[in-house]
Structure formats: structure tokens, C-alpha cells
Amino acid sequence: MVEAFEIIKAKMVESESDIVEVDTHKVLVFIDHESNTIYLWRGKNAGISEKLMGTRVAAKLSHKYPNYRIRPISEGQEPAVFKHLIGKSLKGP
């Protein structure tokens, strides 16, 4: 199971859809409960306040899920496992 959140105007908004657009202007947080991983994806053109809030959100979630690790990812540097994750459960670019 994967939960997805988007940082909009420095606020965390939970995705209500199975489709989350990966966009260069966005900061996204994905919680992958199968691999116990919190992915923090930062688009190249996302605002600094969204990037900072994304870091805070990931840190807060790591307190809620202490056995999960945080994996920050910059746009263009996505590992294969992340691409597979967004391709499998979410809609990517």
C-alpha cells in the first residue's frame, strides 16, 4: 500500500486519488508500507518553501513510523525502485 501527499503552498495535502502527477513544480511525499520507506520527491522547479515543508513532513512521518527510512529524491535522480513504485501504483510522467 502506498500513501501519497503533495506539498501545496507549504501545506501537506493527502492525495484522494490513485493518480498523482509527478510535476517539476511539485514536492511529493510517498509512504510505501511494503518497503517501510518514506520517499521525499522534489521537483527541480518546486519552491523553496515547499521543499522545506516536504522535509518537515517526511521527518514528522518518520516519528509516526519509526521503522521507516526517509529517501530524499531529486527530480532526474530517481532510482529504479521509485520509478517502479510510481509506475505500479501511481501515475508518473
If you had to describe this structure to a student in words, what would you say it looks like?
The protein is an alpha+beta fold and 93 residues long. It has a single domain, classed as 3-Layer(aba) Sandwich (Severin), CATH 3.40.20. 29% of the residues lie in helices and 31% in strands. The protein is built from two helices and five strands. Strands 2-1-3-4-5 form a five-stranded mixed beta sheet. The two termini are 20 Å apart. The model is unreliable at 89-93 (pLDDT under 50).
Features:
globular, alpha+beta, 93 residues, disordered C terminus, five-stranded mixed β-sheet, Severin, 31% strand
Helix-strand blueprint:
Layout: E1 2-8, E2 11-14, E3 27-32, E4 37-42, H1 48-64, E5 69-74, H2 80-89
Parallel strand pairs: 4-5
Antiparallel strand pairs: 1-2, 1-3, 3-4
